[in-house]
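Could someone model uridine-5'-diphosphate with this protein?
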Amino acid sequence: MASERRQLHLFFFPFLASGHLIPAVDMAKLFASRGLKISIITTPLNASLISKTIEKSKILGLQMDVLIIEFPYVQVELPKGLESYHLATSLDLRQKFYKAAAMLEQPLEKLVQEYAPDCLVSSALYPWTTGLAKKFGIPRLIFHATSFFSICASECVRLHEPHKKVSSDSEPFIIPNFPDDIKLTRNQLPDLFTQNVQTESTKMYEQAIEAELTSYGAVFNSFYELEPAYANYYKKVLGRKAWHIGPVSLSNQDIEDKAQRGREASINCHECLEWLNSKKPNSVVYVCFGSMANFNDSQLKEIAIGLEGSEQHFIWVVKKEKNDEGNEEWLPEGFEKRVEGKGLIIRGWAPQIAILDHEAVGGFVTHCGWNSTLEGVSAGVPMVTWPVSAEQFYNEKLVNHILRIGVGVGVQQWVRFLGDSIKREAIQKAVIRIMVGEEAEEMRSRARELGKMAKKAVEENGSSYSDLNNLIEELRSHGIAGEASENN
Ligand code: UDP
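Reply:
Sure, complex below.
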């Protein structure tokens, strides 16, 4: 019976990218709030991004720490400082980055040996962690950092290859054997499906598929009521074990927590909220494309003109520094003057969930990264969907066709980091559609309902709350079974 009371110790090993690190820290806090001990394993620069959050959690009595492993710069010939995936902006850098990620196996193994955790929760992009966990007799839980919907869609495309049965890149196909009729084109699929050469990333993807079939299960940052057909599909049709425990971003309740996720915000959060306080409810559109997308100057100019043309108040996050001369080529002449008081540009990193949760925000232009999508859902706002790459085109379908809380800006083409090019008229039109009129109100009211469901899911006895309990109980009994067999 003593082992029943023993504190479980979990290792969290997120991929080195904000879209993984941020929800992993939120998730770690959730587990720690149930009395588990959590160690987050990451590299020095990534550790520095989360250190304040970890320190604060410790002060609040949560048992969390960070164990640092070195990034193998020299071995893979990457420049110092390139420790996060969004900085790997060329094919060569990405190949090296994936190689570096695979080289983290040895230092991780050392830590597992030293600390003997009860479970390893690791990103899907580290397929080799399944073997490592098996070696030490502990379960590995995959963290996909995306929706059930997109994993199921991707699996159906991989298994049935509908994209090989159409005659052109722009001819739509329906995802076969899928609960809903969802149309996509070859142009919108991740390059894994469309390129014929083997690269570090295609290799890793193939290994990840294999590892998924032999891992203990997966944890999802989602909630059952959001995508029940796909949570069921994942478990019953694809036959995999899963727990839905999100939205994990809702674990951040005070402003400081909301402002400090993943990176230091480039604007004082209180100032930003004060600006929003001066606006009417649902009158501001928030525009942000996550941590990776990096639009060129002409695209940014189109966004500026489209936003101005929409005549809506806005907060726009631009990941662009001023050049050496202090010029900003992307900014239309006199733009900031014209939109003064009406539009706020954040250059760098925004306190996203603090903004989204403000009652003045009535719409979200998003690249459909899963974290952002779910944060938009949790805040109960309609969205303009503007997928760029990764699995974002699947998430767009979920938002617009299943949940019916958004409209597409009209992206046709998957283009890593840079995105397809979208004209000002399309931007203006889409923004107006989610902000003004009957259609906007209908979407907003559906979005609000989903936002309420999201909050309920993480409250005591909600679906995510209960599933987290189920998972912890299962890990507990797994640990006991492991100990029993060790003692025999
Ligand atoms: N984020 C933020 N401020 C920004 C940009 C992004 O806080 O200026 C956060 C956002 O709230 C989300 C994460 O970064 O939690 C981005 O993850 P997502 O899956 O949306 O997109 P990715 O960056 O992986 O493309």
